[in-house]
Batch of 3 targets.
Target 1
Amino acid sequence: MTYVVTEECIKCKFMDCVDVCPVDCFYEGENMLVIHPDECIDCGVCEPECPADAIHPDTKEGAEKWLTVNTKYADIWPNITIVRDSPEDAEKFNGEENKFKKYFSENPGEGD
């Protein structure tokens, strides 16, 4: 098992999860984070820290798509280990549905 970041993160990109991850397995895209499934140690400390409820075990129903997304982009995007502020309009997008279809960007973020 591993944890995955889901579409709830898109356009919110809260970084509370980055702060608590003991193995630095988060990677940063332009408007979301992902978890590298081969680096995640399945400790679960990130899941309750996410204000957008965007982190779930890959065993949750519907998580297959997100495991694929996390795996692909963790290999492309830069690692993020330092917490930065989330976007100024993050709260506006928190809870919005269908964010992947509307807003997902393949572009990398800044990383460390």
Note: The first helix runs from residue 16 to 20.
Target 2
Amino acid sequence: MTTPDPFLIDGYRVIEEGPGFIVVEKASGLLSVPGIGPDKTDCLVARVASRYAGTRIVHRLDCDTSGVMVLATDAATHRRLSMAFEARQVDKTYVACVAGLMQSDSGEVDLPLRKQVLGSSKQIVCHKHGRPSQTQWHVESRLQSVPQSVRVESVPFFPCSMVRLEPRTGRSHQLRVHMAALGHPILGDNMYAPPNVFGASTRLCLHASVLTFEGRTFVAPPPF
């Protein structure tokens, strides 16, 4: 598991406190909610709740994905925000660094996903039994090497692309699977990238950079 980014105190930073909610930036390497087993009780919601009583989870980011999250601090706000996420009234934008130089400037992935096997967290593309999953992508820049902030010195340079990802659905691991399916896996991805791409970065290069809900937009620039 990635060590939480040191620039975030206690694995997160507060972006804004609002009536009934708190917006934070979560570090890579910190669970959003408790996992299975006594060694996985430490998580974002527990840490935030120790400072803000009544904190409730509204949505999640993968452990190794960093970025903007909103948590509710009362029951009414939790219900309202949860319904907004369910109704897809929340906009999310991610930034990722992917292997290789993407040829087109933008596009959409429309590939249905399902769990590889029952009880597994790994997802696969399955046109017969998968759930609809769509991601729009846009190339922000093309680089000749992995960003210095996350590059593993022992790994040879290879080209990569910085992309903006806008999921239209919210399937587990959707962005990671979709980018791998395009032939451009995300750097540092321990599940869907080949060993050289996984080992080229000190972390999963996927960051939730923008979150918009109820007419408000919150931003956390990517740390890579």
Note: The radius of gyration is 17 Å.
Target 3
Amino acid sequence: MRFAGIEIGEVNRATEVRCCASGKVLNVAVALGTLGGVSRAVTVMGGAAAGWAAAEFRGLGIDLVAVPTIADTRCCTTLLDEATGRTTELVENAPPITPDELARFVAAYEGAVAVAAAVVLSGSLPAGTPTTIYRDLLERTPCPAIVDARGPELLAALPCRPLLVKPNREELARTVGRPLGAEADLRGAMEEIRAQGAEWVLVTDGAKPALALGPAGWFRIAPPRLDRVVNPIGCGDCLAAGFAEATSRGLEPLDAIRFGVACAAFNCGTLLAGRLERAAVETLVSDVRIEPA
């Protein structure tokens, strides 16, 4: 919902309202599809949202494997205040899934990942899902993996040696259980995550430069300068999608990070998350600055 301005406690009339299939897994799949690649989203969905999300994915030409659930899929709302540039999210908690639904999801994942060139594991877990679920999925994964998660589920996945983990700074602080105010604190936490198994650790911090740690050492990644930010929701998902797409083309991790950051930058200027334009993204790649740090 877009507003000229939002006044708390008053009636606010939106200037524009758009509905779309979204959420971290779906954003990644849409970004990959709009980049021109072949993508398949595997998730759980139920209720009316499952029907219209499937219809939207068919229109986009993207494969959606949605394991049916008894519970209705949640609906979340983003409020864009053009007067202040602030973005507010109204987020429903994800409903729990049953053990049978989880087992059918794992089976669907196994079928999809068997033919994948890269995989992105992304998002928070529904209530009742074991914190080992990402580890369990990675044990079934024969291709390079990107994990965009936080907390116990991220820590449990690290021994499976994912190619890239990409929490933001706040998520990493919650994962290691302490504040990361100074850069030395941030670097220490990233070293811990890499020591536990991740090949590359990439930590984003909003519009500020990201910090990466990998076999070649430390790097600072500055995104392109943007004239205008429309909606920052989904930028991390687009980064993960861009990294996965570039990895599937054989690019080295730093070049894949560069392409992913360009995808995230383009997403900032769009209203709906993940709806990328490859030609426009390619023009931003050279503006992503990567320097040893």
Note: The chain has one domain: 2-292.
